[in-house]
Amino acid sequence: xxxxxxxxxxxxxxxxxxxxxxxxxxxxxxxxxxxxxxxxxxxxxxxxxxxxxxxxxxxxxxxxxxxxxxxxxxxxxxxxxxxxxxxxxxxxxxxxxxxxxxxxxxxxxxxxxxxxxxxxxxxxxxxxxxxxxxxxxxxxxxxxxxxxxxxxxxxxxxxxxxxxxxxxxxxxxxxxxxxxxxxxxxxxxxxxxxxxxxxxxxxxxxxxxxxxxxxxxxxxxxxxxxxxxxxxxxxxxxxxx
Length: 241
Known about the structure:
Layout: E1 2-7, H1 10-14, H2 20-27, E2 32-37, E3 50-51, E4 61-62, H3 64-75, E5 82-92, H4 95-101, E6 106-110, H5 119-124, E7 128-131, H6 141-152, H7 162-166, E8 185-186, E9 189-190, H8 200-218, H9 220-225, H10 232-240
Parallel strand pairs: 1-2, 1-6, 5-6, 5-7
Antiparallel strand pairs: 3-4, 8-9
Helix pairs in contact: 8-10
């Protein structure tokens, strides 16, 4: 997978990709991340890429010309499965979306800034708009980092144990059950006996029950939205408890 990231602040982005799983993914050659400084596409000698909005509103807007030049220049080199824009009014990032994007070969992500980008960029170049929450950031760099993290870890070979990602929260429409590790008892706080039993069938049943219960308690909206839960009886039983 190749990720081309268009940003006004590449130095802000590079540090995030130089640690942990994202660094290993690049070192293995599974993912290539390329940053493009939008100032390099400025039409002025000062490197400006923004201008005042028509209509006299407050703030600045990222101009159409430098963005178009950058995007079109990259598109001449390769086909992109998606040209993504980080926008507060975009589609909310979700695990199913991350799963789908992880199958892409080439992704381009435009980091929004200021009051956003000239609407013509969104109309003619952007194929997917993504938000990471109902709040406003100074710029789209943090949102882009979050998107890349959720996607890159799902690329085959990135995680040491690919089965680990399948057990993550939201993969099956539920939040993950509680997890424990050694020691089996600490300050009188004990690990549930079933996890020490060695009975894998009972352990899986316990994990499913815990995931259902925790989802009901903390994210009941997921149960209402999910179309993949087959055993609705378990959910009804949990609601009665």
